[in-house]
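stage 2 :: seqdesign
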């Protein structure tokens, strides 16, 4: 994955999130999620820091964990 593309995608996520915070429905969703999942409001308020801290290595590890050969084999079997 191209580093510039990766950083651009993170910036897009951050900007989309900031824009969504202008909507009441976003706040309702945040509050509901915090209550349902026993989270803290600070987590939602620090999402920009969280997104900025994500590394390409972490994305690669996540992809390797969830999108291994077995996963793709299962998808092919289900779609037949």
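stage 2 :: out
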């Amino acid at each position: 994955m191209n580093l510039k593309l990766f950083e651009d995608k993170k910036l897009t996520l951050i900007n989309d999130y900031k824009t969504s915070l202008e909507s009441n429905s976003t706040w309702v969703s945040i509050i509901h999620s915090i209550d349902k999942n026993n989270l803290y409001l600070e987590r939602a308020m620090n999402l920009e820091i969280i997104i900025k801290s994500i590394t390409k290595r972490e994305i690669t590890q996540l992809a390797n964990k969830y999108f291994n050969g077995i996963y793709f084999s299962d998808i092919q079997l289900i779609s037949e």
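stage 3 :: structure notes
- The helical segments are 3-20, 24-37, 41-45, 47-53, 56-66, 69-79.
- The chain has six helices and no strands.
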